[in-house]
# Entry
Amino acid sequence: MEVEDAVPPATAVVIYSMQDEDKDFSIIGRSAGEIAVLTQLDRDQSAILSIDSTWKDGLWMLQQVGTASYGWSVVRKGKMSALAQRVSAQVPASTYRGIPIFALPEGVWVARYRNLWLAGTQSRLTEAMIAALKDRQRRWQAPATTGATVELDNLSAFFSGMAAGGFAAWLQELETSELQLHLTALGRDRLQVRGRLYPWDWRDTVPGISYIAPYLPAQLAWCTTTPNEPLPEEDPLAPYLSPWLGTHKVIMQLALPGTSTNNRVVLLPVRAGTDPSGNISKLGSELGLLSEFPYQMFVVRQLLGDGLFSSFVSEGFQNPYVVILGDYVALSASRSGIEQVMNTRALGLSLLQDATFNDRIVLDSTKVPAAWWYSNHGRSARLAGQLLGATGARIDTLWSAWASSTAAIYQDGSISVAGRPRSNRSQRSSALVWQLPLEEDLITGPFIYRHRILTQEAGRGLVCRSLEGKIYWSYPLQDSISGTPQPLSLDGGQRGAFAFSAGDQVYVLDWQGKAHPPFPLVIPGGIAAPLRVSLLEDPVVYAFWVSSRDQRIYGYNQESRFLTGWGPNTVVDTLVRFPVAHVQYEGKDYIAALSESGHLYLFDRLGRLRLDTLPLRAQAISPSYLMADQVQQRIAIGQSDGYVQVFNLEGQTFRLSLMPNHKGNVQFQFEDIAGDTRGDYLMWDTTVLRLFGYEGNDFLEIQSWSVGAPLHSVHTGKLEDETVLFGFSKVSRRIWAFSMNGEVLTGYPVAADTPPALWLEDDRLLMLCYYEGSLYQYEL
# Structure
């Protein structure tokens, strides 16, 4: 008998020998330790080979034995003298259909059937091979003597309990395919698989990936292109689509916040010599329009209906957006999805600008594809994990070992799969780590401190979560937090805490959510500017600086007692609407307050003026940035005319021209971005963000970025030796990430309703934002 006679009919995967050169790719091996399924399979394989190394020449079968649990069967033809002698001295553990089965201490069950030796990591696997031999219902044929063969119609059962969503639906479609896929793995430093489908008589083809790439957004997670079946006459959409519809379809998944359904986009090709405009317009009249609006050079229609276009995508779309892009008609269930493909065409923000895509392993250019796939693994890891989400599967870990993958089925039935390993020095791009829907609307936040997430939510108050989104505690809070929470320590530096202002009160909470008495503290006259906390005496004395609406400045310590000279300070002539600034330099304290009337006040620790009042030459648009160290001592204030006015600690002043020809209102920020401790100057208007600084004694523009949307705030993140700027636009509801070479990082902008919260963890720069009811965590 032949080894193929022992293959059970329900088997999905057969491997022809387990030689060293046929083992898992080295990149898989590096990930296997983190994946329970692969770890167990490796142990079971070693157990079988430890009995007799010649098992490696056998025919190996991978069988599902439970959800996310697999075992090995192996059959070998010929003599195995040592094993025969070993089992002859044992009593069979069981007998199945007249064949004795022996249980070996390695955790393997073996049997002999005529000239074949059988082994399985469970007794039922060995029994299944005996049944196949007894019933003589051989199904498997041997197209080769190396590599692996996959029975496609058995894959749905093979992944039972693991596959979800679109992947599960696709596996169910394969149940009637009657196709075998033979694979041969090549190479050890990259994923490279070649194979062939049997039998194969498909002749339709699709355009290559390079032709379609200009229509694919840079935020792409993955994409497939497959032939279109002609629409049946009974399809209600056929009269509106068939007159112009081409012979293929493109289905893409975008790496944007929200559900995978909302971030799915379909491209339908327009057949040469046809114009879909009239038919799309008639379709809108027939179904009804929820909206119709212009976007850049395009006209977008939102159709009324559920399950629309189900001939092209599983379950169809609900109330889809439709836009004609020229050679393609784009469909999406979400406005954000349809906007991405329009931006791709109008702004040139396509996959062609993505470094990961350009570094992919290209398809075989000598063959014509019948279907192809491309994926950016950094952006699709979360989605891949959802498609195989059973406990122990951890497909996202294995998935992230590669930067990208490409695959194709060619017209002749051959296939190729290739993956580019992830490089530690690859270009930065965004990858969505997790999404957490909130039960309540977000009021303020998110904020990140001490590996905790703080959010203020309607109905819940202030909520503290872990970095994975688990709730630790909540604190009732009615008024909105002003500014950002300020970290500090209590009990002589032994207990971490944070302070913030909300309404007309100042609060101090520790990281267990307990209020520090006597806080909350009501500020007489009400609070005019966000609270600022600074260190007076390390590690036990903090200063709480609060300006009130009755033109006073209060100074408290962390026990709510007035600081000398600040109970309150009444020197300032008008309101102070920007936070108070405080630094210590050469044993002295400098407290800066900027009045609404355009005057700078510089106080000492006891509330006495160090200098006469310093007038500004234009309206202030920023707080007073106070920096004092051995390199420099200066106070920088951005002004509405595009200049920044700089003071030293003796009151001498000068102005720097940053954006005198600005468009619309300008904003300003002063901080150390270049890393030389001299401070850098950021200013932006409605279209451009500019960075200025010193090189030697020369003041010059270091870099600029064209945004195309007004930014509300800019935030700095640092990773290794890189600095990244994040710009948030409240109007556009987007966050951009800018590299120091003047480019927008791959995967940005991302959708957001709040500024980003940034933190560094295990050499990863993480970003948290809120968008339409959910928190989203990204990794850069």
Summary: The mean pLDDT is 87.
